[in-house]
Amino acid sequence: MTIDWDWFPDHRDDLVRLTVDHLSTAIPSVLFGLLIALPLAVVAHRVRPLRGLLLGLSNVLFTIPSIAIFVLLLPVTGLTRTTAITGLTIYTLVVLLRNTVEGLDSVPTKVREASKAMGTRPLRTLLTVELPLAFPVIMAGVRVATVMAISLVSVASYIGYGGLGQLFTDGFQRNYPTPVVAGVALSLLLALVADAVLVTVQWLCTPWLRRRA
To answer: Is 188 within the bounds of a domain?
Structure first.
């Protein structure tokens, strides 16, 4: 396989544009998935009969092939970025929901009881005690979901919003490996940078873990 290195400077603007387009699809997917997963996880954690239903439903959605999700959404949202973001949000939801539930489950019962004994309302306990203690586990899910979303954005090239995935399509159609290599390298770099940013955010938001270390 021969790489045309002169191709890279000639297509620098296109690479920047596609990278920004890639991120503008992946990042909202994770954010929307987290916004949906948080309240569902609280319900699943506190209402045990609904736990299996919610987790099972998210697992079923995860088994649907990504292209099939985009096809099912097309009659509703059309060939728009909304279709790509909605499909990817469904995929991130299963990881975020399960990790958030596990994070809430990991909070020691004695901590909840102590908060209740102090007269703290349930909502305040959730916001000031349970979620902060569950934060490391939740962030582990966010990291996995973010890397997964970045990798799956390329599939959305089927509907014209695949970001760096367009390089794969172009390279395969012309039997020209250089765009494919560029797309793979940039996707991998985005995933590594995003994961490093999230690790830094977690480190900054958990000073009690730093002190313990």
So the answer is: yes
d(CA 16, CA 38): 33
Q: Does 7 map to a domain? A: no
Query: What's this model's pTM, rounded to 2 decimal places?
Result: 0.87
Burial 148-183 (b: 16+ CB within 10 A, else e): bbbebbbbbbbbebbbbbbbbbbbeeeeeebbbbbb
Number of domains present in the structure of the chain: 1
Q: Which residues contact 139 (CB under 8 A, 6 or more apart)?
A: 198, 201, 202
Residue 4 belongs to a domain: no
User: How far apart, in whole angstroms, are the C-alpha atoms of residue 19 and residue 188?
Assistant: 12
At 191, which helix (H) or strand (E)? helix 177-205
pLDDT tens column, 82-134: 888 998 998 898 889 999 999 988 888 888 878 777 877 878 888 888 888 89
Sign for the pseudo-dihedral over CA of 78, 80, 85, 87: positive
Q: Classify residue 134 as exposed, middle or buried by CB count within 10 Å of its CB (0-12, 13-18, 19+).
A: buried
Cβ-Cβ contacts under 8 Å for 150 (sequence gap 6 or more): 22, 26, 187, 190, 191, 194
The C-alpha atoms of residue 169 and residue 184 are separated, in whole angstroms, by: 12
Helix or strand run (H / E) with residue 123: helix 122-125
Please tell me the distance from the alpha carbon of residue 188 to that of residue 71, in angstroms, as a whole number. 26
Please report, for the domain that includes residue 29, its CATH number. 1.10.3720.10
